[in-house]
Fold:
Amino acid sequence: MNTMHASVPGTETLSHPPIPQEAFDWYDQYAHGIIDRRTFMGRLSTLAVAGFSMSVLLGALMPDYAHAEQVSFNDPGIKGRYVVFPSPKGHGEGRGYLVTPSALKGKAPVVLVVHENRGLNPYIADVARRVAKAGFVAFAPDALHPKGGYPGNDDEGRAMQGALDKAKIEQDFVAAAKFLKAHELSNGKLGAVGFCFGGYIVNMLAAVVPDTLDAGVPFYGTPAAKEVRKDIKAPMLIQLAELDQRVNDTWPDYEADLKAAKVDHAMHMYPKCNHGFHNDSTGRYDEKNAQLAWERTIAFFKQRLA
Structure:
């Protein structure tokens, strides 16, 4: 288990102490539809008596994609384009961001990159480029394609995704996984990495299409329905954040089911981290733990998809 911890960017200033943990908890509840925006903002306003301005709080909690890009879309080491795929049991057609290593000759392992509950935002597109830089063919579908795609901001994207049929969204990702595994550039080995909602989708794919997925890395994602977990076959690398009580509460039961199904799995609990600690566009980002989790992810795929 990792024991490193980095300070969270944006949570300390010369005039303010670290932002209280409850602010991050409230944001998690807001981001997952447990409370609405009015309630979220109202709770944040209570911290004004502690000397926090709303600009400081929102600057730490809300995404800033302009400062989060790690791999440019113009990077000469990768090639990216958008492609469509059939999804007859979902919304009919899906669309996603396909990124390949520029030096690729022949076939390579393929990795599905699954976004959070707000569509294919710039952070997830950047993660797809990072996967391609590591030598894999990466594909990041956009669940919002039926509505025209990610709208340019997370609040609207979250509302759009929430209005779509969840069962059809799941079938779109099943179709995307099968499309990617059968792609002409695929060596026949499919991995999947996802974050938050995307972590759930990775767990779901492992359970409902066990002969399609060869390795899964869910970041702070809830498990699939209990009745289908017995079908999981793929090795799983579970990435959790110590302060993410909502998701962590689901782990003991999930772990028991993985053991019962004799699934090769490992779980890493990253200390003092919040849900979303890998997302470098927000104040929840924990650089050292995110880097370690990513190194483990890439090493896992290189081992399991060779």
About this structure: The chain has a mean pLDDT of 91. The chain has two domains: 21-62, 71-304.
